[in-house]
């Protein structure tokens, strides 16, 4: 007599795997406290941005079409259309020198300070001995304000007691020739370049930090593959590493443009943007805060600054959005 062993049935493919628990698959309800916290986290920063950024910017654009001294109520505002812009471009002598100086500032930061910061980042990425100390030393000027930077470099540039003139005078006495101390901040033929050196000293440290962070994020496999192919370190950097850091390059470009346009502190500390140091930001302050108190005219200058900087910001945002897609 034979017995047959029952064959277990095949498991149902549609049946859920594992133990089932009550409420599985249901969405977790958000409590009222969580909703309140999320709302506040979104609402509070938005209100600050609107109050401190967008409203002043829109008010400046509106006032650029008006004539107002800032004294009296809003009913004293006289709307003059594009008169302020016409006067800026045709009847305001400091404007075009300021544009030229801002372009020189941009070129110096872009072609001198930025490559210097990149070079420092490449060196520190090699994990040299004492690299932590060098990173701190090069980045230290970044945490200083431009106003404080101007005071520090005043010790270097002072005509009577400055370090540079003292050293040059010492070598002049040593070699037996006459040296006339240079007024680095007062001479309009050299003061712009003296300020650019001080500003570049600070800018290079910031760029170094950005590129150093980018280099640390590069996949080491790319370097190894380039090394196997026989590429030199220079060729590897410009052909492999640099293109990979495209997002960092865009950020550096935008930051450099903004830094060149908003350069104000160090110039204002030195001579309030006069005598060879005319820049747009200083002209805005002179017209709005100065004795003239021409709110509309200063707002027109500020709007021109806003438009110029917005071009590069829009280019950056469009590029980032395309990459995100």
Fold and architecture overview:
The protein is mostly helical. Helix content is 66%, strand content 1%. The protein contains 13 helices and two strands. A two-stranded antiparallel ribbon has the order 1-2.
User: What's the average pLDDT?
Assistant: 84
Series of secondary-structure elements, N-terminal to C-terminal: HEEHHHHHHHHHHHH
Query: Count of DSSP helices?
Result: 13
Count the E strands: 2
Gap between N and C termini: 73 Å
Summarize the amount of helix as a percent range: 55-70%
How is the secondary structure organized here?
Layout: H1 32-63, E1 66-67, E2 78-79, H2 83-90, H3 95-124, H4 131-139, H5 146-157, H6 163-175, H7 191-217, H8 220-228, H9 233-244, H10 246-261, H11 265-271, H12 280-288, H13 295-324
Antiparallel strand pairs: 1-2
Question: What tags apply to this protein structure?
Answer:
two-stranded antiparallel sheet; flat; 2 strands; mainly alpha; 1% strand; 66% helix; 325 residues; MetI-like fold
Short description:
Helix content is 66%, strand content 1%.
């Amino acid at each position: 007599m034979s017995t047959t062993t029952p064959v277990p049935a095949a498991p149902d493919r549609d049946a859920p795997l594992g133990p089932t628990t009550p409420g599985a698959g249901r969405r977790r309800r958000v409590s009222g406290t969580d909703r309140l916290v999320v709302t506040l986290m979104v609402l509070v920063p938005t209100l600050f941005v609107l109050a401190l950024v967008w409203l002043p910017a829109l008010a400046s654009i509106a006032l650029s079409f008006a004539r107002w001294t800032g004294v009296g109520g809003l009913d004293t505002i006289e709307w003059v259309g594009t008169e302020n812009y016409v006067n800026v471009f045709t009847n305001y002598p400091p404007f075009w020198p300021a544009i030229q100086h801002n372009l020189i500032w941009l070129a110096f930061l872009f072609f001198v300070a930025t490559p210097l910061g990149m070079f420092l980042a490449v060196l520190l990425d090699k994990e040299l001995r004492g690299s932590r100390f060098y990173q701190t030393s090069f980045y230290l000027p970044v945490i200083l304000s431009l106003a404080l930077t101007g005071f520090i470099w005043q010790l270097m540039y002072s005509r009577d007691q400055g370090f540079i003139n003292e050293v040059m005078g010492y070598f002049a006495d040593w070699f037996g020739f006459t040296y006339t101390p240079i007024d680095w901040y007062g001479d309009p033929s050299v003061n712009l370049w003296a300020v650019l050196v001080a500003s570049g000293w600070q800018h290079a440290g910031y760029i170094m930090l950005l590129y150093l962070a980018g280099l640390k994020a590069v996949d080491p496999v790319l370097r190894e593959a380039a090394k196997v192919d026989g590429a030199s370190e220079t060729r590897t950097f410009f052909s492999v590493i640099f293109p990979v850091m495209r997002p960092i390059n865009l950020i550096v470009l935008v930051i450099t443009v903004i830094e060149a346009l908003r350069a104000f502190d160090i110039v204002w500390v030195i001579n309030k943007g006069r005598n060879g140091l005319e820049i747009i930001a200083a002209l805005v302050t002179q017209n709005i805060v100065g004795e003239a108190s021409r709110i509309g005219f200063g707002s027109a200058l500020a709007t021109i600054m806003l438009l110029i900087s917005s071009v590069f910001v829009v280019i950056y945002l469009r590029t980032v959005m395309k990459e995100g897609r």
